[in-house]
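Subject: design request, 535 residues
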């Protein structure tokens, strides 16, 4: 039987794989997505969705529907030896987004949302299909898929993406990839259970340190997730509800009483990363590329954002709009993010979960004095949250982004596009609602006050853009709030806040990639720099 052909084969149907499928679907790239499991797990697994991830998922479907199914967290409460040490409030720290808070939600719900978004394009994960052989050559990749009922088929793809987790078959098939790291020595236990008589705010999650460490994540349905490190556990002893309650009573007495558990498990954690996210026509993303401690709730979010970075690049190359070498920028942009995450989460993990009694004593004394002082500063809290929320991710060092000469605003090529309210046809909306995932976007800012230019002048620039390059882009005109006249296609910058965020009092342009990051930015007077960049 002849091999079935497709442009992209995605191995792994979790959040990372389905997100990549969504990115390809909006560009109308032929693909298949397979998973060896017959059905999705009903376990909650990853719980936190960071604000930047919500922004990016909102490009595919109203992420507020996902928010409504979970529990927004406005901060963290630290406990030391059973006593409340400090509250860290994150509300109000970010003002340039429609999603300022962390969403606590079961991975099951996240996957339902992603599946719903994918179904709108007529696609779904093909289940019960395992990739048993993956062989690449100069022209493509040949993959053998075995179904759960023993039927084998051969698929021929231009590219294969491994979104198949820590034990990735795709990564193992890539002869040039290593996955270096090690396991943490601690034994961890996990419990999802109902809780009663709790005295804690249900919009906070708790981190508790003492002899051992404990984290409590409140879920929307009156249940909570408790994760703990065990000190000197009995060999191979399975955790019980009583184990968790004893640790709660000691480290977090305000948490309440656990009952009716839905999941109890023990596990070990690893920290590993690949030496490259690409090997020829094979790519890895998510846990197939990096696994680390859950400190900071970054893992699933990083995998989703790996896929958002890779998806549009695959589309451009497959459509013949960029050379194959353009795909190298996926590794160039995303691997430093993964490496930084490994290093940072490792440090956080070491401070929070050390089993050394001398270090524990020192840490607890230090935290008692330092934590309240540290979080008393809004700037310090904002810097921490910039990392945790993933709003701080940028690709400024990438070779495929740029900033025009003479431009000195606070936001540069490779940065995230911020969000503010604009007015279109008299109706207010978020600016990022304009930035769809299926194309590039050219945004022209008129400038403000005496520096502003009229819409007519902006349209002359657009004519230059359309006549002198072949790049496809949606065009958006953002006008000073004081503009005398606005056309049907123009948008008003409410309060001129968007101009302020970009630092653009003078007329400027912003060329935005499909993944919501800036490819090129500059003053409108330097528009030729963009045309040259595109050439």
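Subject: RE: design request

Done. Sequence follows.
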């Amino acid at each position: 039987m002849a091999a079935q052909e497709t442009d992209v084969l995605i191995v792994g149907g979790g959040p990372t794989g389905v997100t990549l499928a969504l990115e390809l679907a909006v560009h109308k790239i032929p693909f298949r997505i397979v998973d060896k499991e017959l059905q999705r797990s009903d376990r909650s697994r990853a719980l936190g969705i960071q604000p930047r991830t919500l922004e990016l998922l909102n490009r595919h479907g109203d992420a507020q529907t996902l928010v409504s199914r979970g529990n927004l967290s406005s901060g963290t409460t630290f406990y030391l030896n059973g006593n409340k040490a400090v509250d860290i409030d994150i509300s109000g720290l970010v003002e340039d987004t429609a999603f300022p808070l962390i969403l606590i939600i079961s991975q099951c719900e996240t996957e339902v949302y992603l599946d719903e978004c994918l179904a709108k394009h007529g696609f779904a994960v093909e289940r019960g299909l395992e990739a048993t052989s993956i062989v690449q050559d100069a022209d493509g990749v040949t993959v053998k898929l075995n179904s759960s009922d023993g039927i084998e088929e051969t698929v021929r793809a231009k590219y294969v993406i491994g979104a198949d987790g820590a034990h990735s078959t795709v990564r193992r098939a890539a002869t040039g990839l290593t996955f270096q790291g090690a396991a943490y020595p601690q034994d961890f236990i996990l419990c999802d259970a109902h809780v009663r008589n709790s005295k804690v705010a249900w919009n906070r999650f708790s981190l508790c340190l003492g002899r051992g460490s404990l984290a409590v994540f409140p879920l929307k349905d009156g249940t909570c997730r408790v994760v703990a490190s065990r000190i000197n556990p009995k060999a191979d002893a399975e955790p019980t509800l009583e184990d968790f309650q004893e640790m709660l009573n000691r480290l977090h007495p305000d948490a309440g009483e656990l009952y009716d558990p839905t999941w109890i498990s023990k596990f070990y954690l690893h920290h590993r990363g690949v030496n490259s996210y690409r090997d020829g026509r094979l790519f890895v993303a998510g846990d197939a590329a990096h696994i680390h401690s859950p400190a900071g709730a970054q893992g699933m979010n990083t995998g989703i954002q790996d896929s958002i970075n890779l998806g549009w690049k695959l589309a451009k190359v497959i459509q013949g709009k960029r050379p194959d070498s353009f795909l190298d920028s996926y590794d160039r942009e995303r691997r430093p993010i993964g490496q930084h995450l490994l290093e940072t989460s490792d440090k956080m993990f070491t401070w929070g979960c050390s089993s050394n009694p001398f270090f524990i004593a020192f840490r607890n004394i230090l935290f008692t004095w330092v934590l309240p002082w540290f979080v008393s500063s809004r700037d310090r809290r904002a810097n921490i949250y910039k990392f945790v929320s993933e709003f701080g991710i940028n690709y400024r060092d990438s070779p495929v982004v740029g900033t025009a000469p003479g431009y000195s605003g606070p936001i540069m090529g490779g940065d995230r596009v911020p969000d503010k309210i604009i007015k279109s046809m008299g109706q207010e909306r978020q600016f990022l609602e304009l930035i769809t995932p299926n194309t590039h976007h050219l945004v022209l800012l008129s400038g403000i006050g005496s520096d502003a230019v009229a819409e007519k002048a902006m349209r002359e620039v657009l004519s230059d853009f359309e006549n002198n390059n072949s790049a496809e882009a949606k065009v958006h005109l953002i006008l000073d709030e004081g503009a005398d006249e606005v056309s049907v296609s123009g948008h008003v910058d409410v309060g001129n806040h968007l101009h302020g965020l970009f630092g653009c009092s003078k007329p400027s342009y912003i060329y935005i990639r499909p993944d919501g990051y800036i490819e090129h930015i500059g003053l409108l007077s330097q528009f030729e720099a963009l045309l040259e960049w595109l050439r």
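The chain has a mean pLDDT of 90.
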